[in-house]
Amino acid sequence: MARAPNWYDQLDSILATLGAAEDLDWLGRAEVGALFGTSERDSIRLLHKFGAIVRNDALSLPREALLVQLEAVAAGSAYAAYRRQREGVAQHLAQARTETAARQFRARAAFPEVPRPRLDALPSSLTWRRAVGQGPGRFEILYEDGADLMAQLAEFLHAAGANREEFFEGTEPEL
After folding, report:
1. 28-32, 62-66, 166-170: which range is least confident on average?
2. Which of 5, 83, 107, 124 is the most exposed place for a label (fewest CB within 10 A)?
3. Tens digit of each residue's pLDDT (9 = 90 or more) over 103-120
4. Predicted pLDDT of residue 102
5. Are 46 and 36 spatial neighbours (Cβ–Cβ below 8 Å)?
């Protein structure tokens, strides 16, 4: 599909404004520029596109003629295809936003009212032991689902961050 004119986005409001401006018989460069939200050069192009005539040494277009042409554009297949494409893009974006929101969740400590978490007060489903000699340490979490795992990890990290010295003392291997 060829690129649609920029003013297709505003066609409904252009039609409404043009229909309400009953005291305006002719539109010139300034009126078309204000109506379509375009520059001086683009408003002249639009005047030519819609069949403007030279009137008093300036391009002018009867309001009724422009209104009829814009209503024909709104009823045409190119504009209908543009609207379908825009609706498809909007649906795709809404679906993507929904999927993105579903993938995100905030991990909070299970007990946010506790002012300073302690490592020795972590739930029994979370255990960690220091390494003996040169062997590996052990960190184990028993969880019900992904949200529970994230909450327990967040709680552990919060406690370890608040008690850094105790955490490092408890994780360094005994020699």
Report:
1. 166-170
2. 124
3. 776 666 555 565 677 888
4. 78
5. yes
Q: Determine the 3-state secondary structure of 42 from DSSP.
A: helix
- How far is 4 from 131, CA to CA, in rounded Å? 67
| CA nearest neighbour of 4 among 74, 78, 72 | 78
What are residue 110's phi and psi, to 5 degrees? Answer: -65, -25
Location of structure tokens 């229909």? 19
Helix (H) or strand (E) holding 27: strand 26-27
DSSP codes of every residue in 75-139: HSHHHHHHHHHHHHHHHHHHHHHHHHHHH------S-TT-SS--GGGS-TTEEEEPPBTTSPPEE
Phi-psi region of 89 (alpha: psi -120 to 50; beta: other; left: phi over 0): alpha
pTM of the shown model: 0.53
Residues 31, 116: Cα–Cα separation, whole Å? 67
Cα 14 from Cα 60, distance rounded (Å): 17
